[in-house]
Amino acid sequence: MGDFNGDTYPDLAVAVKPAPDKLDDINAELANWLVENPRHSYVAPRNKSTVTLPPSPKPEKVRAGETLLIVVHGYGPKGWRDPLADQTYVLTQAAGKMLQVVKPSSELAKDFGEFPSQRDVIAENLSGKYGVIYWTGAAYAWHVER
After folding, report:
1. What are phi and psi of 110, to 5 degrees?
2. Residue 144: which of 64, 128, 66 has the closest Cα?
3. Which residues of the chain have pLDDT under 70?
């Protein structure tokens, strides 16, 4: 549990394995969550005032046997426990080893910039690389820590 989007309300992040017979429901076009791969999120370079956005990627799909990281943004004082907390992200290729909730590092602030509000990030080891998953204000992104 942490405040990943910086709104002061508690959010929830949990690693799960989807039931194989539910993949069609999870990947449904009208599902009430967004499936994202933080490794594919576009983060504009800080040193450019004008950027050309890359083409929109194909929608991400959950695959059988994949461990997912689910993030539910909290709503109001009850946070993720509030029935109105329905802003949910299904993150593919994002559940690694040693998941921890931490504060953003100075390296992330240097590369991404200062966040407009205090928030937490999810630190972990993905494919042998230590880094953090963080909320950009539009999506979750992966940042390798040096």
Report:
1. -65, -40
2. 128
3. none
pLDDT on residue 58: 87
Q: What is the largest CA-CA distance in the chain?
A: 47
Q: What pLDDT does 17 receive?
A: 95
Q: Tokens in use for 60?
A: 């991400």
Angle (CA) 88 3 74, round 5°: 40
Q: What DSSP element (H or E) covers 107?
A: helix 106-112
CA distances from residue 60 to 40, 51, 98 in whole angstroms, order as listed = 10, 24, 24
For 112, the 3-state DSSP assignment is: helix
**pTM passes above 0.85:** yes
The per-residue pLDDT for 146 is 77
